[in-house]
Amino acid sequence: xxxxxxxxxxxxxxxxxxxxxxxxxxxxxxxxxxxxxxxxxxxxxxxxxxxxxxxxxxxxxxxxxxxxxxxxxxxxxxxxxxxxxxxxxxxxxxxxxxxxxxxxxxxxxxxxxxxxxxxxxxxxxxxxxxxxxxxxxxxxxxxxxxxxxxxxxxxxxxxxxxxxxxxxxxxxxxxxxxxxxxxxxxxxxxxxxxxxxxxxxxxxxxxxxxxxxxxxxxxxxxxxxxxxxxxxxxxxxxxxxxxxxxxxxxxxxxxxxxxxxxxxxxxxxxxxxxxxxxxxxxxxxxxxxxxxxxxxxxxxxxxxxxxxxxxxxxxxxxxxxxxxxxxxxxxxxxxxxxxxxxxxxxxxxxxxxxxxxxxxxxxxxxxxxxxxxxxxxxxxxxxxxxxxxxxxxxxxxxxxxxxxxxxxxxxxxxxxxxxxxxxxxxxxxxxxxxxxxxxxxxxxxxxxxxxxxxxxxxxxxxxxxxxxxxxxxxxxxxxxxxxxxxxxxxxxxxxxxxxxxxxxxxxxxxxxxxxxxxxxxxxxxxxxxxxxxxxxxxxxxxxxxxxxxxxxxxxxxxxxxxxxxxxxxxxxxxxxxxxxxxxxxxxxxxxxxxxxxxxxxxxxxxxxxxxxxxxxxxxxxxxxxxxxxxxxxxxxxxxxxxxxxxxxxxxxxxxxxxxxxxxxxxxxxxxxxxxxxxxxxxxxxxxxxxxxxxxxxxxxxxxxxxxxxxxxxxxxxxxxxxxxxxxxxxxxxxxxxxxxxxxxxxxxxxxxxxxxxxxxxxxxxxxxxxxxxxxxxxxxxxxxxxxxxxxxxxxxxxxxxxxxxx
Length: 806
Ligand code: CDP
What we know:
The protein is an alpha+beta fold. The protein has 20 helices and 34 strands. A hairpin with a 5-residue loop joins strand 17 and strand 18.
């Protein structure tokens, strides 16, 4: 017969706490069509808004004819910049310290820019109204190339800034120049380059792409004229920050604004910024007194909201003959489009690009970034990465390969001899970061052994022989990457957005019967927060995760937080969750000691209870303690059991990973087939291994997309050539390879539970890994650099350029 007293193992298993592969609780709703997304919100009398958008990338707007649109049945209003101007809402501040037109004010700067907002009784009438608006444009010369934009006679794009020599991030030296951001020691780096045995130099371009989440952006604004309260539902990755921004822009007192992010169908950075649709839906609701919904379609999403990357990175890397790297130099030209609407912490105009020394102990480095205006859509968001860390990782991982070619060395060995050593942590990088922890050599050796690296190289050499002998038309590429991420923005002293420090928060309330509700300042977009944050609480305070409800995204109920992006949820809000749990545990200890009639120090925590030290049969479970908190409170101590924590992390966390990809390339068709992809991630303490694996699979698939086909491309007239999913590559299960996942565990020394972020690592490490595999296949034929995306056509052209089609 089974013993009725559960064992410690059974009690631990019952909690489903940290380390357990608890199934995602969200999926019961999501897989049964019970999600509640912005477009599911239906309110009485709700109106619909739709945008008239510019077909031109650069043009003067002379007249907007709205009369015919107003005749369309159902159309109630057509709002233009002239209507917004008296309210001071025709321009809005961007997250990067620039300002951006809400609706075209005299000119347009990119194709798809918002020109007028049509409000109607239904979506179709609004779309008919958009068709009926006539706009007179005078075309202006278009610049889509950031280098041409900086030529002396380039057209002036931002006439509103003409004559301004100071921008939000220092001096502007040209009418299309936004900022120069410098990090590191320029003179010392140049001296190292001058004296080095070997210097490898290359231009590394990380093309423009787009996060393209399954759900596009949208909002529903509802102004209650009786109470004066504005409720705004939207696809917001940072609902509290949006509430503050709406208050500052509109003048509505912040307590009269309630921002709600309902379920979000993927964000990947796309839903961090503020868009014209949000402002216009609010204005339209205030004007009409009715709720107003705006939801963009796929083309609008791809054309106008939040692009990513578009960095031209000129690099030099210096080394000794033996391959010890002595210096790194990088000059980046960053194409920010028509407005600087990048989503980065204020002091980092190029995000965390200064992590571009990567996993390597590089003593001297210098980075300069020039931000430039062009006639492209604004944005510059962190598409599944911590600000610009993806660009940084791509840059260094390509430069390592370029250096390996120059030194005629194996790229795995070159990495190994330059890794920061375990005993060097905490490690201060030449560009100013303090890496918290890492064990790169162990991870690297594990990865190389797991794939049988030496055998793969032997097989590759044989295949090359066969190719040269005409026995095959396929080449084999082995892509290597060792990346270091920087996630968890961030210490308030370093990181703020619009002056709001980047801490985060968690509030936990324990109910009398021992179940709980927790609310956080973050917002899940598919990452499974309701599952994993409950696991942290379960382990911290001994209440089963299944008995904990988790809520995010409602500013009227959740504590203030800076939201979810840049893999910051676990490093920051996850830490707040543990700290709030510890406050509850401290009070629970007092209550337990009181009930057991012993001193506080004479009880200790044991999975789900406090036991008297040395007398384990005397205990109070958390369930009993919770009830007591509401009924037998300790004299002089407040009843109840709840706590809130606002956590300002002392440092960021530095997850890392070792990825290896084996590709077969058909030289005649340009097709690349992923034969193997091995991904080892180290995200410190692992909360839910199954969710981590899901995050890695998702991130790698987005990396595959970016490296192998996805691109927002423009022609020289500024026409967006990739604004449909026919042209913009989203991999299906057909294109997606199998992934082999693995891990090491190097806890963060400063995080309360030792966890680092993981959501973005696979994208950061995956892109260079796929790209390096393509390059590696052609290395014997003299290829050092070809630009992504490596679609079939470009691979075919590379093969052709190397004379492999003769
Ligand atoms: O900020 P975001 O949620 O996008 O990224 P994250 O903090 O890296 O977390 C992504 C998901 O992975 C969340 O559900 C985390 O709780 C989970 N995770 C985990 O289980 N263990 C870690 N060490 C890091 C994240």
